[in-house]
Structure formats: C-alpha cells, structure tokens
Amino acid sequence: MTDRANRLQGQIAVVTGGSRGIGRATALRLARAGAQVTVGDYRIDPANEADFGPLQIRQEVCDVRDLAQLRSLIDGAAARGGRLDILVNNAGIVMVKPVTDVSEDDWDRCLDTNLKAAFFGTKYAIPHMRAVGGGSIVNMASNAGLLPRSHDPVYSISKMALVGLTKGLALSHSPDRIRVNCVCPGPVEATGIMDEELALQPDREAAVHNYIAASPLARAWDRMIHPDEIAEAICYLVSDAARMVTGTSLAIDGGKSLGVPPR
Ligand code: NAD
C-alpha cells in the first residue's frame, strides 16, 4: 500500500463539476494526494487558477449533458496521461419543485445532469480503466438518494437512481477490478447549491439553523458539513486503501439519514 500522503501518485483523474463546491474541493484533494486531475465544468472560473495552477489541475469547458463533450473530456484526460484511473461524477443541479410544477424540461435537465451523465461518463471511462487493469468511479449522490423527500421529488429520484446505478455497475464491472461507489452528503456549506437555496429563503439565518438541526452531528457541532469532508471520503474511496470497497453508498450527512434525531 502506498504512503498515505501521496497515495494517488501517478494516477489520472477526471472530476466533473469541479469549478466550485464539493467538486472543487475534490479536485484539490486528489491532486494533493498526487493525482493528475482534469476538471470539466460548464462554468470555468479563472480565479481557480490560483489554487489549481500549482497543482497542475487542468480546467476544461464541458457540459456533462452533452455526451460528445463528456466523452472528449474523459478520452482527452486518458490520452494526455496515458491512462485513466479515477472518475468522479460530481456535476449536479437541484430541483426544488412539487410534482405539479415540474415541466418536462425540468425533468430532463435534472435527470440528464445528475444521472445520465454519470451513466455515460462511466461508459466512456470503462475501456480506459480496463486497459490498465482497473479503476475507481465515485458518483455524487446525496442524502436525497437514501431517504424520500417531499420538497424535491425530481432531485430525489435522480439521486436514488444514482445509488441504484452505483450498485448495479459495481457488480457488472467487478471482474474488471473497476470499483463503483457513491457518497451521500447531507447539507454542505460553501457550495453553489447551498448558496442558491439559502438565497431563496426569507430568513437566511433561520434556514441555516434548520439545516443544521436536521442532522444530529451537524447539530452537535453546530455547523454544516464542509466540502473538504466530502473530498476526504472520496480520496479514500478512490485509493488502494479501499480496494475491496465497491457498490457502497457512504452517507456523510452527520446521521441525517438514520432516522428521527433526538429532540
Ligand atoms: P455547486 O453548485 O457548488 O457545484 C456544482 C458544480 O457542477 C458547479 O461547478 C456547476 O457549474 C457544475 N455543473 C452543473 N451542471 C453542470 C453541467 N451540466 N455540466 C458541467 N458542470 C455542471 O454545488 P455542490 O453542492 O458542490 O454540488 C456538487 C454535487 O454535490 C452535486 O451533484 C449535488 O447534487 C451534490 N450534493 C450537494 C449537497 C450540498 O448540500 N451542497 C448535498 C448533497 C449532494
């Protein structure tokens, strides 16, 4: 087993939706562990260069709903690095709407980003990973993938399906030594998704309090989950330390999905 500090040395990684939030933290974490990382995002933030440049993290414009762009992101990283070891299907959007307000376009946008892109990203990564005797894929699910929620049915469906997809593809590709896992975060601060949700609330402070109160450990620490805490788990899942871990849905939600918290 390689040293913990540079456990991904020599590995080639792709992170979708890596311009901000959890994807950005993941790109930085994997690069600090030695991986050569390419980030694909439909919004490239030039300000990221300050942190990405020294770690040689490459940013590419990629809308994951456009399968040609997604394939080119993955094939390009594999061609530059001579191999592909890691794919993090992280790009995602929220959809907070009751069923009665959901349009076909809403459904397509959410499912195409959160689910279809993970399926096809995996499809494009498999031949590269097979060629080097294995690899590791992490899908960004959610607390919403573990528990039905009333306020965001389309988002929940996309994440529940992603948990199912993870298990199925983990089974299918175990003979290739390709591991497929997912992480299921609870409310994560310092992310675009959370900022957008909070901006819609009439009382931001009360909304933050409610998010914290819904997760037993977040309440105990009196704070939300941080993107680095998700990135650390992903770094473990893609490393050799997890070589016998596949098909798992790792809840990083402070116990939110366990049941009714103490009063
Ligand atoms: P974020 O908005 O900070 O990051 C999402 C990133 O995905 C952005 O950089 C965005 O530009 C990119 N993206 C969106 N659609 C894209 C597309 N079609 N093509 C390419 N890039 C696209 O939010 P985040 O919270 O870091 O979200 C990352 C993932 O984490 C999502 O899949 C989200 O569902 C999941 N998640 C977030 C939370 C949370 O509380 N923030 C909780 C559970 C799961």
Model description:
With 263 residues, the chain is of the alpha/beta class. The protein is 44% helix and 14% strand. The chain has 9 helices and 7 strands. A 7-stranded parallel beta sheet has the order 3-2-1-4-5-6-7, sandwiched between helices. The longest helix has 28 residues, at 104-131. It is globular. Nicotinamide-adenine-dinucleotide (NAD) binds next to helix 1 and helix 6.
Instruction: Please compute the radius of gyration using only Cα atoms.
Output: 18 Å
Series of secondary-structure elements, N-terminal to C-terminal: EHEHEHEHEHEHHHHE
How many domain regions? 2
How many strands, which pairing sense, and closed or not: the largest β-sheet? 7 strands, parallel
Assembly level: single chain
In short:
This protein is 44% helix and 14% strand. The chain is α/β, with parallel strands linked by helices. It has 2 domains: 4-186 and 227-252, Rossmann fold (3-Layer(aba) Sandwich); 190-224, no CATH class.
Write the layout of secondary structure elements.
Blueprint: E1 12-16, H1 21-32, E2 36-41, H2 49-52, E3 58-61, H3 67-81, E4 86-89, H4 104-131, E5 135-140, H5 153-172, E6 178-185, H6 192-199, H7 204-213, H8 216-221, H9 227-238, E7 249-252
The protein binds nicotinamide-adenine-dinucleotide.
Descriptive tags:
single chain, 263 residues, alpha/beta, Rossmann fold, 2 domains, 7-stranded parallel beta sheet, 9 helices, 44% helix, globular, binds nicotinamide-adenine-dinucleotide
